[in-house]
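tool=predict chain=A
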Amino acid sequence: MMSLRISFWYGFIGCLSVFSLQGCAMATQQEGPLTAKQYQQKIDEGSNDAIQLIDVRTPEEFVDGHLEHAHNIDIKGENFKSELDHLDKEKPVFVYCLGGGRSAKAAATLKERGFTQVYDLKGGIMAWKNAGLPVTPAEKPVKKDLFTKTDFDKILRENKVVLVDFYADWCIPCKEMEPSLKKLATQYKDRVLIYRLNIDQAKALTSAMKIEGIPVFHLYKEGKLVKEAQGFQSEEQLRNLVETL
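tool=predict ok
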């Protein structure tokens, strides 16, 4: 009888441990950025008057198209933090930007200021569009891309090996990697073309390629994609990426 009780007790503790671990895993997942589909679903779960949807891009980006019912609070604006204080801490706050970098910082700031229900869009509005989800029409004529698929194909065709760095001027990790990329471009100039592609100048191309959450690196050999990496890369990681060929 004693043996049976002990077995039951360990079994019960084991079940509790499993549920506890699963609960921790679920909590961790909920704390991180949501995919576009998860983000949309979370928004749809609430009523319109309870949703605080914040676009932290610049006003110029905002008028090019945004999520419906979004309110623009530029994270780089002088009054960013004071504007956040006008939000209701008792209601959920949804934040997004273009690629996810700025909204991650905004989400962290909101949590620091006492907001407990904060949801960030993984990959930003780029991921939202790539998932086929709607945005409002641009309020002004969209500027023509300065870099097109024709330009991209020409670069791949004329160079045996190309490392493409998808970046943007507003992307902080992209700026931090710039010295390393320039250094490697000089060192590998006879073997690899390191090309920095500004996504803001190639919106149609990067949308078609489903580029999101920059920085992103694509390594091409004879026109074919052979390797890719996402997020901040150290000089050593970039070098290793090139040396894989």
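The longest strand covers residues 161-167. Residues 115 and 166 are 33 Å apart (CA to CA).
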